[in-house]
Recover the amino acids of this structure.
């Protein structure tokens, strides 16, 4: 009598093996199909389609997927930025597509994951799959009738077995953030950010547009009074090491600086020197291009920690009325039109972002105002807590001249120094004017002789 073979359809282990084998085969097939059909699918649909397929297959593999979006509301997601840096350093040879960029002022190439590519990482024996997704969505802002502006939405998908959820959340993600910080500090290229062309609406990838900041100014090259220079450096050092102090006293971890003085006294160079000294990126905020307080809020919450927010020539870039006239104007507008206009940045709204609840949206941030006319500013802008340190940017001093002579001519002593220093204190010339004179000739004797004539003529014209 022949014993019939066992019926595998009733064996749960055998059935599970068959299903898993089928899913694995299907996954491999999908990856092949994905690489083949990608050129024929519009980019705006690829992220949505392939993300849906991955989500469907993960159900059979007992996986879960974490979505790491670029923005958390208005603010940038720190984990997204960390993943960008971390994954760029772990590019896999198995990847078929990568994005490559290079700045004219950098010696290295920057690699990054291309859209819908997968990278597999391993952490303490746990297999983790990363996919970068990018797709176009409507912003909700109409350009003209029947047409809306589109912007790019970017996010990472991190997939792993459900049983590893705790180790991913408690160990892997903190490890990723720490590693990204180490990588970024090791080869950080400072950035100068300006408001992007897409406008500051939520989720837009163009809220801020960066370029490399390669400004050579340092505290060693600034033509400033030595005591004032040391005071600024000490203040910056004290600020960056006071994280727990600010938390203990209940204040947002920020510091405000007001740089005031005539044009050409080095206000922009001082900002660049501060950025180079702290290794902070700069966000250049142009207030006159904003339509409302809401636009300002969206921009400010999209700035990152360890940054310098700069508003140059604040007395000229926007007409910030005093709060009394601002209220009167709003009441007059309400009486005449029946509604309150919101198409401009107001002083009260601006102050709220400097010193109100919104000021705590970022940590370790420095806010710098520059102005040529401090007397034109509303006193509400100048008080401590908003502008904590007022820095006068004066005309060139004897100390500043000696530093400029050393930088431009390579000399520390000359017989004409005494004559120049006796005149420069009353001539009221800016460091920019002195530097321009020193650049006209490489011969110290000729350059310094011309400097004497320039200072005497300048002083005579002033009288």
């Amino acid at each position: 009598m022949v014993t019939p073979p066992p019926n595998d359809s009733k064996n749960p282990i055998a059935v599970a093996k068959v299903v898993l084998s089928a899913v694995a085969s299907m996954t491999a097939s999908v990856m092949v199909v994905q690489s083949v059909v990608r050129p024929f699918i519009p980019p705006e649909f690829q992220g949505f389609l392939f993300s849906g397929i991955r989500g469907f297959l993960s159900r059979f593999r007992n996986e879960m997927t974490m979505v790491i979006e670029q923005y958390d509301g208005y603010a940038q997601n720190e984990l997204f930025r960390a993943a960008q840096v971390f994954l760029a350093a772990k590019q896999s040879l198995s990847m078929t597509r990568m994005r490559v960029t290079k700045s004219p002022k950098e010696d290295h190439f920057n690699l990054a994951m291309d859209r819908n590519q997968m990278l597999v990482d391993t952490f303490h024996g746990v297999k983790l799959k990363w996919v970068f997704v990018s797709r176009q969505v409507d912003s909700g802002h109409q350009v003209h009738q029947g047409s809306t502006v589109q912007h790019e939405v970017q996010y990472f998908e991190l997939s792993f077995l459900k049983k590893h959820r705790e180790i991913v959340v408690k160990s892997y993600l903190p490890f990723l953030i720490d590693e990204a910080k180490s990588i970024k500090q090791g080869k950080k290229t400072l950035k100068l950010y300006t408001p992007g062309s897409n406008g500051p609406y939520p989720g837009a990838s163009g809220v801020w547009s960066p370029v490399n900041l390669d400004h050579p100014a340092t505290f060693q090259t600034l033509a400033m009074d030595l005591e004032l220079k040391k005071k600024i450096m000490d203040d910056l050092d004290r600020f960056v090491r006071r994280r727990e102090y600010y938390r203990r006293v209940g204040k947002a971890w920020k510091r405000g600086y007001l740089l005031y003085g005539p044009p050409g006294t080095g206000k922009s160079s001082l900002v660049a020197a501060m950025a180079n000294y702290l290794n902070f990126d700069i966000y250049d905020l142009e207030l006159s291009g904003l339509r409302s307080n809401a636009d300002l809020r969206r921009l400010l919450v999209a700035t990152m920690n360890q940054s310098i927010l700069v508003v140059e020539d604040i007395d000229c870039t926007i007409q910030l009325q005093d709060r009394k006239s601002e209220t009167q104007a709003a009441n007059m507008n309400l009486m005449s039109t029946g509604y309150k206009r919101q198409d401009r940045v107001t002083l009260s709204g601006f102050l709220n972002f400097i010193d109100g609840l919104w000021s705590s949206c970022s940590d370790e941030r420095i806010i710098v105002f520059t102005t040529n006319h401090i007397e034109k500013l509303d006193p509400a802008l100048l008080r401590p807590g908003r502008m904590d340190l007022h820095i006068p940017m004066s005309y060139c001093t004897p100390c500043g001249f000696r530093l400029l002579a050393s930088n431009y001519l390579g000399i520390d002593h000359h017989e004409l120094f005494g004559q120049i220093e006796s005149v420069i204190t009353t001539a009221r010339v800016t460091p920019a004017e002195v530097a321009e004179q020193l650049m006209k000739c490489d011969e110290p004797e000729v350059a310094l002789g011309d400097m004497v004539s320039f200072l005497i003529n300048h002083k005579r014209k002033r009288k």
Confidence is low (pLDDT under 50) at residues 15-20, 199-205, 321-341. The chain has three domains: 8-189, 208-392, 398-462.
